[in-house]
Design a protein that fits this description.
This protein has about 625 residues and is α+β, with helices and mostly antiparallel strands. The chain has twelve helices and 37 strands.
Length: about 625
């Protein structure tokens, strides 16, 4: 059950029953949201710097409670065209401003600021239904967020939510980067061209240069919600629920987020708003350890031991046995408590412990459905470090709650999690940090092109960590090897999968593998240096006093200048630079490795090859 977050220091400023409007601005005054109900329809609008960003749009939910009303003897209630029609505004409560910081167990930043103004719009029906609905609203400098809250019904009446009425009416000329499914490539089109439901995050550029992104947060007891053009309403997106949601009051829906920014890079730098809108973790998660992981592509004892040895030699703390360590994987007849004969799991796990390499195991939904309560304690007993779940259902209300309960049960057994395939995050890793990463991305398994990769940071990566499954030696790669190195920094994932299709024997001493050996997967600071979806992206990340930077080119390549002003003033650094060296570099991968002394007043310029990239490590001297 979703409960309202009771904030400290509530100001309890309540307006009279005649008040029909909630107006709220961000701490810096730039973002303003207004809700009002002057008739049947609840509407809202958003302004940035006093200019419309979201035009007046419908808000609310659709509920079908007819059966329960009949069962509880409320048979004379009026049945309006929409459940929202008969609600009227009672009051508006303005809460005290919040400005706090918190320290995540891991993340793209070691400190997160949570600063917002908030208010609540209270509505009710003036009949014998006892129906009430609140709209809880927060205004951040990074964007706006709101959700619908159902106070407890005195008759404990059941609520069947059958529709999300929230629309987004955008200014004429708004363009969007959209995906029809989580592992899809992108369409770049006007809003009205989105005729099939598309994924979150939905990133949009407004005429005049402002940027918006639509996301959600705190969704563990809801269904998947997407967006599509609303028929008969030009320039308007509507919300599309995958399934009905059955609730018992009191209850809060997920947060709806409208991120705002002057540049697309600011969207990335402000993505902690998703974490801020999720509950904090409770209990001890000190056993959760982010790091890199490589899978054994040979499903034998010897294959696992050989991969573990390679991991130990190259500073990779985890090894994965993917599917087929039990069979059949994609059938309810499979038994994940029994290991195939060609794998001595106890021997492999023991060897991993001796080498300091933890073992992860893939488990398909069939076995998880049938055996999870038995399997997770057994895997912990075996000494397994984490579970990669595969092909799990997640979209309906039933399966969404099942999936998040899976993460909870994994935590109870000190198992870390990586969820594949279509699932996308909404900040649940703040509440359960054992969920290190998830797929929900058109990553390297699909061998996307470089232009696709320059769109991902401004779209999919706003949701949270993504397991891109970095490939390196595979002949199917469409992008350069320097591009692959850079991608491992750009695409944030506390559990960073590298060398996905590769075997240990593929490595032939290429010097740039030192980049993977040194790479951190969680950071103290993250900066976006430049970029635009479909063109390029340059980022810098810091862990301790060491900085990393990387840039990705699109299919055409181009000049990339990296301003080093993020480095600490007055310090000198040695920069190790990994670039595409062409035929001048006599290795299979043609990656040039150079070093030079730099300081924060310097700029580094590169002519990036088509589909190329650059990766740099800065060590203080």
């Amino acid at each position: 059950m979703k409960k309202s977050i009771v904030m400290a220091a509530v100001a309890a400023v309540v307006f009279g029953a005649s008040a029909a409007e909630l107006r709220l601005s961000s701490p810096d005054g730039r973002n303003t949201i207004c809700f009002e109900k002057n008739g049947k329809e609840l509407t809202y609008k958003v302004d940035i710097d006093g200019k419309p960003a979201v035009l007046p749009s419908r808000a609310g939910v659709e509920i079908d409670n007819w059966v329960w009303e009949m069962a509880l003897g409320k048979r004379t209630l009026e049945q309006p065209e929409s459940w929202m029609d008969l609600l009227t505004v009672d009051s508006v409560t303005v809460h005290a401003p919040v400005d706090s910081t918190w320290t995540p167990l891991y993340g793209e930043r070691s400190t997160v600021r949570d600063r917002f103004n908030s208010a609540t719009l209270h509505m009710s029906r003036k009949d014998k239904s006892d129906y009430r609905l609140d709209v809880q609203v927060r205004a951040y400098d990074e964007g706006l967020a709101f959700r619908y809250f159902f106070p407890e019904h005195p008759a404990a009446i059941f609520h069947k939510v059958v529709g999300d009425l929230t629309d987004y009416a955008l200014p004429e000329g708004t363009m969007a980067w959209s995906e029809k499914w989580a592992q899809s490539t992108f369409d770049y089109t006007p809003i009205d061209s989105i005729t099939r439901p598309v994924e979150r995050a939905l990133t949009m550029e407004l005429p005049g240069g402002k940027w918006l992104a639509l996301l959600d947060a705190d969704v563990d007891d809801w269904c998947l919600t997407k967006f599509k053009a609303r028929e008969g309403k030009p320039g308007t997106l509507e919300s599309v629920m995958y399934s009905p949601v059955d609730i018992v009051t009191y209850y809060a829906t997920p947060w709806k987020i409208i991120m705002t920014a002057d540049t697309p890079g600011e969207l990335i730098e402000n993505n902690d708003i998703v974490l801020n809108l999720n509950p904090r973790a409770e209990g001890d998660f000190s056993w959760v350890k982010p790091g890199k992981i490589m899978r054994s592509t040979v499903m034998t004892t010897e294959g696992g031991i050989k991969t573990i040895d390679f991991c130990a030699e190259h500073n990779i703390p985890y090894m994965l046995y993917d599917w087929l360590w039990y069979v059949p994987c994609t059938s309810h007849d499979g038994d994940a408590t029994k290991v195939v004969d060609k794998v001595d799991m106890a021997k492999v796990i023991a060897h991993g412990k001796e080498k300091g390499v933890g073992v992860w195991l893939y488990v398909n939904q069939h076995a998880l459905m049938k055996q999870m309560d038995e399997l997770f304690p057994l895997l912990r007993q075996w000494g397994v470090t984490g579970v990669k779940s595969g092909f799990v259902q997640y979209a309906s209300h039933r399966w969404a709650t099942w999936l998040h309960d899976m993460v909870r049960k994994a935590a109870d057994n000190h198992l870390q999690m990586n969820i594949h395939d279509e699932f996308r995050p909404s900040g649940f890793s703040r509440t359960y940090p054992n969920l290190l990463t998830q797929e929900g991305i058109c990553g390297n398994e699909e061998f996307p092109d470089a232009t696709h990769n320059t769109i991902l940071p401004f779209t999919r990566m706003l949701n949270g960590a993504a397991d891109y499954t970095i490939c390196y030696y595979d002949k199917r790669l469409r992008n350069t090897h320097a591009h692959q190195l850079a991608a491992s920094l750009i695409f944030y994932s506390p559990l960073q999968t590298i060398l996905w299709y590769d075997k240990p024997d593929a490595y032939q001493g290429e010097p740039e593998i030192k980049w993977f050996e040194d790479l951190e997967t969680v950071f103290d600071d993250t900066r976006v240096l430049s970029g635009r979806p479909g063109e390029s992206i340059a980022m810098a990340r810091r862990k301790g006093d060491i900085w990393w930077a990387a840039a990705l080119a699109n299919n055409d390549g181009g000049r990339q200048t990296i301003d080093l002003s993020f480095l600490e003033p007055g310090k000198k650094y040695e920069a190790t630079i990994y670039t595409d060296g062409g035929d001048k570099v006599k290795t299979r991968t043609h990656v040039a490795v150079d070093t030079k002394k730099v300081k924060n007043s310097d700029k580094l310029s590169f002519e990036l090859a088509p589909r190329g990239g650059v990766a740099i490590k800065f060590m203080p001297l």
